[in-house]
Task: structure prediction
Amino acid sequence: MELRYLGTGAAEGIPATFCACPVCTEAARRGGREIRTRSQALLDGKILIDFPPDAYAHYLTHRFDLPAVEHILVTHSHTDHFYPQEFELRSAGYVHEAPPLLRVYGNDKVGRVLFDALPEKEHEACRLVFRLIRPFERFEAGGYLVTPLTARHDPSEGCLFYLVERGDTALLYAHDTGFFPPETWEFLRSARPRLGLVSLDCTTAAFKEGTNHMGLPDVVLVREKLLEMGLAGEHTAFVLNHFSHNGGLLHQELCGKARDLGFAVAWDGLSVAF
Ligand SMILES: [Zn+2]
Ligand SMILES: [Zn+2]
Ligand SMILES: [Zn+2]
Result:
């Protein structure tokens, strides 16, 4: 499999939309890998994970086949992960040829936000269906086996993250998770996926958090636990993602600290094969 990071920032991006703090100012000055749009990823060119307000910019910058995408896994309804207003642009008048049917997978809050932006009666014209998914209930999407896992994030909705399996390898895409709750650890212990890529939330960079997001001290514990459980090993790439200026570190500084702990740091455009 190949995961392409289209965007690697938290809600406000880096530089943050309206911020002139030292991190944002320096990131804007340096450009390149210091610039982070809102988090989104593409698996094997076929399955999108999340659909942020920067999805259109990602399409322009990274030149993947967005009209052909048939599956979007949505983690939760926060605007940096889900911006459904764009889906109206799939209807006649905005497209000259009807795109293939798009399945949008998400929790009930994601469904409500989608229905508010685009009433259900318009979904057929937009070539879109919403699939309500539930934690730990595996489903098939485009030839991949997908399991939604529970996250420790905004308790007002059941935030999810994803285990995606195909053949003898698996992706664990874990952003806006906090330290995983016990039921998710229990599931991983019994499902025993062979993890090729583990992509972890590092919103708070050097600072410990764990209750809503994670920082370096938290991801170290997740990594140790996955290794201990035998779900990760030599064959596993550990990548950090979903960063905020609140973490206080620029990409370059973060890379140094993360490397020493066994992690790579994602940037907008990074591809990881596993
Ligand atoms: Zn987020
Ligand atoms: Zn800032
Ligand atoms: Zn969130």
